[in-house]
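Dig into this one:

. . .
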Amino acid sequence: MEVKIIRSQNRRKTISARLVNNIIQVNAPAGMSEEKLAEAAAKLKERIEKRLQKRGLASPADLYAVAQKLNQKYFGGELKIESIEYSTNQNSVHGSCSYKKRTIRISHRLAGMPEWVRDYVIVHELAHIIEPNHSSSFWQLVNRYELSERARGFLMGVGHHA
């Protein structure tokens, strides 16, 4: 995505960015060094691109509906979750669960994978609400999902390919 730098004599310290006609417009102080400006512009560009990427993902309501369906099927509807959403800053894990807060975050990378893989990760994270560790009883819960072995293999293959 193209970045356009606009220097202003009126700005003293702050730098900001916004999207204008698919161009990231960065407003910066006129006296800011090129090095600092390049670093700040790169961070702002990354933040805007992540925001745009997240907008293109399934809504939290859609993910919540999927989680509730899986909760019903594999846990008898007994689990209560507060929220589930895609996260654009989970690049080394596929999902995470805060079992005390009952919140689940799913990596945005899963949106481009088959639904059964995403569902496996959701079941995995739902199981953490009951078992916060990776004990044998945890894996018994996860393995209720009939495609769990296949999904784990898929995710391992994707990880090695990347």
Remarks:
- The chain has two domains: 3-55, 60-161.
